[in-house]
Amino acid sequence: MSAEPIMEPVMEPKQDPIDLLIAIEEASQAPTRPEYVEGMAIVPPQPNDNHNDGAGELYYQFRAAGVRLAGFNNGYRAAHKDGTTMALLVPDFYVRRRRSSELDEAYAKAHKGWYPIDMLALVGEVTSTNHETDTGPKFRTYAAAGIPVYVLIDRHTKTAHCYTDPVLPGDDPTEAYYETDEKVNLGDPLPLPAPYPILETAPFLGD
Question: Which of 71, 109, 120, 147 has the most CB atoms within 10 Å of its CB?
């Protein structure tokens, strides 16, 4: 007697977004640091000198004000409630809540170089040609991850923003947002909540 054939589809294991980004990096002919947000792998454009100079100036302002845990270039992973990867992000600059602990380093080793996003107290982005990424998916993802402060230099609209009070109204991270937006024109000082400095945005006037 022969067994009945199994007609249920065989589900292939879902690729971890971390491995997807590694594959993109390996395939790229130019150095790149792809990110993953809202189900999309994003390869950011090569930042120009004005972008890097301005982001560096903001980082320097934090350090000059005594914010020792300001940094840049690390990648951070946000997870869904079930532990799967929600987002992989490389902010232009940030302020950490703490120095990396043994647990943080173990997390980064387990996730191939990505640190836990709960290390961050503030994130900052300077828009490039793909400005919609910083004003849309990243805006929502940082809010969903509960990052208290999101500083955005929007070179497209010539404005600077300090977003605070993240809100996640349900279980869908794409519905998250920041309730408060302190907005100024580029060139004007941007107030940040204590203990952070008031940021000078004049370096971006030449963009």
Answer: 120
